[in-house]
């Protein structure tokens, strides 16, 4: 986690207070304290399982160099979670994070990685590295160390024949992490130390020394103690408010709003050792969003993307309720630009990995990255690689509907009054056909005031596209033409609310290489090809003007031919142009 201030700040950042006063349990829920209170009992059980006699079991205070996060009196009124005595390390960590107050978890962006995804992330990193790591494996936002368990276990397996005391000494330079959550860091140190117990048990009781703390409290955006050969991270998600100094520091990866996970990706790309690998579990939004264009450019130039795995499903993957689509993205420092191996991993009781195929990043690298999401998309993307034209080339621009209804509540009504215009709502575009949805008729008219005519009124033909869609929706692009006839039926002038994208023709259309009519543009956006391509270049269910503007469109000669095709044959011809029909 980072010291940067979260937005919105629902409450003061508890983690920052804990760094300043590590003896205070303020802000930690009773449920989380009950989990922490159960850790000593869990530790004793793990020692016994490792083969250490009960009379030789050291208390946590003796066995671990990491100090306890809170004084013993913090637990005076707390009953330990006895049901956790025999659970796995992953289950204990998950019990802690799910017991945190929801506001704290949301504000700080704490979402621990499920064990199957932690394993998949590490295996993907090793595949790109092309060998098991022999240098530092680092997690800059480690929480309770879940991402470090797979590399630690792998390292211990590979060094099982070495002297136990040597293994314990060397592990400190092989695995490490940092986080601001004092309690999580302590818990993580316990969990990682428990992996060392079988080795520790082999050392004579009179010669044992305290086990090392592999995690530390601090800001993960700062440089690690050594350049990592492999960085694994599931950084905190969410926007942050930066001061001028921080904005200047991260200006090479920022465009508009800053998101914490983007900062962590940019930081680790800087700190990697030569030929090092970064493997991140992050939301998919950075692949296409406007705010991430500088991040994409920086990553492409310094640590090219080598593997991308989409995490199937949004619900039930994270116990803390992350609903964003997430990906496992693996980058390699100093690598040449080339193919990106794409795949999908699904957690349905067991981990199922499905290969998709290879994609390739094309210039400009700061634009949305068009990469296949299904095996069928590989051929489609290959077919459009030569399509250089976009909406702007044909004289079209995209803007967001200007009416934010709750800013004009007093001007809305169910009947026309004075200088009023009809409102087009997103619901009026359902099914790709412009209609007057009855559910919006109670707020159907906007009475214009002052400068509203200039700002809020659309009085020329346009193409309208819904901005907000649902994950389960069969189509991401829902477009309809507001042609001259439709506009006349709606009164000749309308106001479009802000959940609708408005595509309009530039008056200087003579500069365009071909005439792209509203009819043909609507048909293109309504095609199967356009919908699949849009899904391939965005990780969001929102349909943004930025990503619409990046859609590959047919060349001028194809546009001229398609414009002459009858309506009933148009979709088939569009499919042919995009290579979906032989």
Your description of this structure?
- The chain contains 22 helices and 20 strands.
- The strands form 4 sheets. Strands 4-3-2-5-8-10-9-11-12 form a 9-stranded mixed sheet, sandwiched between helices.
- Strand 11 and strand 12 (351-360) form a beta hairpin.
Provide a compact summary of the structure.
Helices cover 32% and strands 16% of the residues. It has 582 residues and is α/β, with parallel strands linked by helices. It folds into three domains: 1-108 and 142-219, no CATH class; 235-375, 3-Layer(aba) Sandwich (Rossmann fold); 391-577, Adenine-n6-DNA-methyltransferase TaqI, Chain A, domain 2.
Counting DSSP E segments of at least 2 residues, the number of strands comes to: 20
What CATH architecture label of the largest domain applies? Alpha-Beta Complex
Low-confidence stretches: 5-25, 314-322
Strand order in the sheet with the most strands: 4-3-2-5-8-10-9-11-12
- The CATH superfamily of the largest domain turns out to be Adenine-n6-DNA-methyltransferase Taqi, Chain A, domain 2
Number of helices: 22
Strand portion: 15-25%
The number of domains is: 3
Mean pLDDT: 89
Over the alpha carbons, how many angstroms does the gyration radius reach? 28 Å
Biggest sheet overview: 9 strands, mixed
Distance between the termini: 51 Å
CATH first level of the largest domain: Alpha Beta
CATH topology of the largest domain: Adenine-n6-DNA-methyltransferase TaqI, Chain A, domain 2
Tell me the quaternary state: single chain
> Percent helix among the residues?
25-40%
């Amino acid at each position: 986690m980072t010291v940067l201030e979260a937005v919105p700040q629902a409450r003061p950042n508890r983690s920052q207070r804990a760094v300043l006063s590590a003896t205070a349990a303020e802000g930690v829920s009773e449920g989380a304290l009950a989990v922490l209170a159960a850790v000593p009992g869990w530790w004793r059980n793990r020692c016994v399982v490792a083969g250490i006699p009960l009379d030789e079991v050291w208390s946590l205070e003796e066995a671990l160099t990491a100090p306890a996060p809170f004084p013993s009196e913090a637990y005076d009124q707390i009953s330990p979670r006895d049901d956790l005595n025999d659970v796995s390390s992953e289950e204990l960590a998950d019990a802690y994070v799910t017991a945190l107050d929801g506001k704290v978890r949301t504000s700080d962006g704490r979402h621990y990685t499920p064990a199957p995804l932690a394993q998949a992330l590490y295996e993907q990193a090793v595949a790109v590295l092309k060998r098991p790591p022999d240098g530092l494996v680092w997690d800059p936002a480690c929480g309770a160390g879940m991402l470090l368990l797979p590399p630690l276990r792998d390292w211990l397996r590979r060094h099982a024949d070495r002297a136990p005391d040597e293994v314990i000494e060397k592990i400190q330079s092989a695995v490490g992490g940092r986080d601001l959550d004092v309690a999580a860091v302590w818990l993580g140190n316990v969990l990682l130390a428990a992996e060392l117990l079988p080795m520790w048990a082999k050392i004579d009781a009179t010669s044992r020394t305290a086990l090392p703390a592999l995690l530390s409290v601090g800001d993960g955006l700062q440089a690690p103690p050594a350049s990592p050969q492999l960085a694994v991270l599931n950084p905190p998600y969410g926007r942050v408010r930066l001061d001028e100094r921080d904005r200047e520091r991260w200006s090479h990866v920022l465009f508009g709003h800053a998101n914490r996970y983007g900062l962590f990706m940019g930081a680790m790309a800087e700190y990697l050792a030569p030929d090092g690998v970064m493997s991140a579990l992050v939301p998919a939004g950075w692949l296409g969003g406007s705010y991430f264009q500088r991040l994409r450019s920086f990553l492409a130039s310094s640590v090219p993307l080598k593997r991308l795995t989409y995490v199937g499903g949004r619900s039930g993957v994270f116990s803390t309720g992350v609903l964003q689509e997430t990906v496992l993205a693996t980058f390699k420092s100093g690598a040449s630009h080339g193919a990106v191996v794409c795949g999908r991993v699904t957690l349905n009781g067991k981990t199922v990995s499905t290969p998709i195929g290879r994609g390739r990043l094309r210039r400009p690298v700061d634009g949305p990255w068009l990469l296949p999401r299904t095996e069928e998309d590989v051929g489609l993307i290959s077919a459009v690689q030569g399509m250089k034209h976009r909406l702007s080339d044909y004289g079209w621009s995209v803007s967001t509907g200007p009416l934010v209804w709750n800013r004009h509540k007093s001007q809305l009504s169910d009947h026309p009054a004075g200088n009023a215009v009809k409102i087009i709502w997103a619901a009026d575009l359902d099914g790709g056909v412009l209609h007057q949805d009855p559910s919006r008729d109670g707020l159907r008219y906007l009475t214009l005031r002052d400068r509203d005519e200039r700002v809020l009124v659309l009085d020329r033909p346009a193409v309208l596209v819904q901005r907000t869609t649902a994950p389960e929706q069969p189509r991401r692009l829902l477009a309809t033409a507001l042609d001259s006839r439709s506009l006349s039926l709606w009164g000749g002038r309308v106001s479009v609310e802000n959940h609708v994208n408005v595509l309009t023709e530039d008056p200087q259309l003579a500069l365009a290489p071909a005439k792209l009519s509203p009819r043909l543009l609507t048909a293109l956006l309504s095609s199967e090809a356009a919908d699949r391509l849009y899904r391939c270049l965005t990780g969001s269910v929102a349909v943004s003007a930025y990503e619409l503007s990046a859609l590959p469109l047919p060349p001028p000669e194809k546009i001229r031919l398609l414009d002459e095709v009858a309506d009933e044959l148009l979709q088939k011809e569009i499919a042919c142009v995009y290579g979906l029909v032989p």
